[in-house]
Specification:
The model has no long low-confidence stretch (mean pLDDT 89). The two termini are 28 Å apart. A hairpin with a 4-residue loop joins strand 5 and strand 6. The chain is mostly beta strands.
Length: 436
């Protein structure tokens, strides 16, 4: 475990024969090349981009906490850090603090991880967070497979409808198999819908109330299986070196009433399948099939809104495209308690369109989503639609026109088309920088 910290006398005890002059010279040359070319600094920088963390002695700084932007917060600046194995190999403590200059609110988190086995496959995590989350967002409790700075969801820039969330959470993480990750979770959270004067019609024995501010206690289990992923372990922890497909996700959440002030009882199931495969001369095909269902009479914050990427009443000349979002659908335009969507993309790489050095990656997409909502009359002071008729979208992207940047053109089809034909079109810039 401490091999990198031992001195020359220690190793001499285990060598069959002492190093000769040629071997000593070899070590010297290798060390000199490393210092001259700054291999350690370059490796540290590459590792930071891949892992999203910059290591300084016994502290890992979270690079993705430094700066972000969305319509609700405006520019958000912050700092986040966690201790690493150099301080304690069985415990990591840390958190973050951030400030949104538009909403003028501080957000913060503090947490601790206890590693119950040496390889980090079995761990406890707990803490407290005060932050914002998109109202009705579709979220899996398990972390993403990679924290790479190149895996940025640019859809986040366009988000504008949020809940203010105060949450105490505890997680038990277990990598059952190398490629099967699980989490048992318990949390107590309070949510407040911001920006709009939303009210939920809540019937009790004492009468009918219009409520904004929702307390829940949730327990559940989340599973993620990526059968072909490859990992490497080292002093930096366990890191993916080959993120593969398919990826399967399933999560069950139970809302427990009358515990820690919880007011709601519900059962919620979420599933998703993401798959990519390459075909000769046709590039790469990828699709996502996802859906969710929640049983119970629940407020806006605890049901679903579709994965949209078009801001309301914001006419920016340039807008970013996401990956599996509906680019012509307005943010929080539809809400559901049961939903499903299918998004297919065919990336023809550079096979279709080449003029000299001009060789963009042409990508065609098609998406469809359906949903339903029980008791829509319970949701007051909010504009929304439901998805029983089905929402359809198609588009074409010319990616990597310059470096990783390109442009996409999208069209809204079907029964939820807008009255003005021009409003059914959307033009976005694309950034395909997913190198890791």
């Amino acid at each position: 475990d401490n091999a990198g910290k031992q001195n020359e006398e220690f190793w001499n005890e285990y060598r069959v024969a002492p190093l000769d002059s040629k071997e000593l010279k070899t070590y010297h040359v290798i060390d000199s090349i490393g210092k001259e070319e700054k291999f350690e600094q370059k490796l540290a920088a590459l590792s930071a981009f891949v892992n999203g963390r910059w290591r300084y002695k016994w502290i890992d700084f979270d690079l993705n906490r430094i700066m972000s932007f969305n319509i609700y917060e405006g520019f958000r600046l912050g700092v986040g850090a966690h201790t690493n194995y150099k301080l304690l190999d069985w415990l990591s403590v840390g958190g973050y603090v951030a400030y949104g200059f538009k909403d003028q609110r501080f957000k913060y988190n503090y947490e601790a991880d206890i590693f119950l086995d040496k390889a980090g496959r079995f761990s406890l995590n707990g803490g407290y967070v005060f932050d914002i989350e998109q109202t009705g967002s579709q979220q899996f409790n398990l972390n993403n497979r990679s924290r790479s700075l190149f895996r940025i969801d640019y859809r986040n820039l366009n988000q504008q409808q949020f809940d203010e969330v105060s949450k105490v959470y505890f997680n038990l993480n277990w990598n059952i198999f190398p490629n099967l990750h699980s989490r048992l979770f318990v949390n107590r959270q309070n949510r407040l819908v911001k920006e709009i004067d939303y009210r939920f019609v809540e019937s009790t024995n004492d009468g009918v109330y219009l409520v904004n501010g929702f307390n829940t206690t949730q327990v559940g289990v989340a599973l993620r299986w990526a059968p072909n992923d490859k990992y490497m372990e080292g002093p930096f922890g366990r890191r993916p070196i080959d993120l593969s497909y398919p990826v399967y996700k399933i999560q069950y959440t139970r809302g427990v009433p009358d515990v820690w002030g919880s007011n709601y009882e519900f059962d919620k199931i979420d599933v998703a399948i993401e798959y990519r495969f390459k075909t000769k001369r046709f590039g790469e095909s990828k699709f996502e099939l996802a859906g969710g269902y929640v049983h119970g009479e629940l407020p806006y914050s605890l049901i679903y809104t579709s994965v949209a990427n078009r801001p309301v009443n914001v006419n920016w000349p340039v807008q970013p495209a996401g990956m599996y979002a509906f680019e012509t659908m307005f943010n929080n335009e539809f809400i559901s308690n049961a939903w499903a969507h299918f998004v297919f993309r065919q990336n023809f790489k550079g096979y279709l369109f080449k003029i000299g050095k001009f060789n963009p990656h042409v990508e065609w997409m098609f998406g469809a989503t359906f949903g339903s909502l029980n008791n829509p009359e319970q949701h007051q002071n909010v504009e929304f639609k439901t998805l029983e008729k089905g929402y359809y979208e198609t588009g074409i992207e010319f990616n990597k026109i310059y470096q990783g940047l390109g442009v996409g053109f999208y069209y809204r089809m079907g029964p939820y088309q807008l009255p003005k034909q021009i409003d059914n079109f959307s033009i976005k810039f694309t950034a395909r920088l997913d190198f890791f």
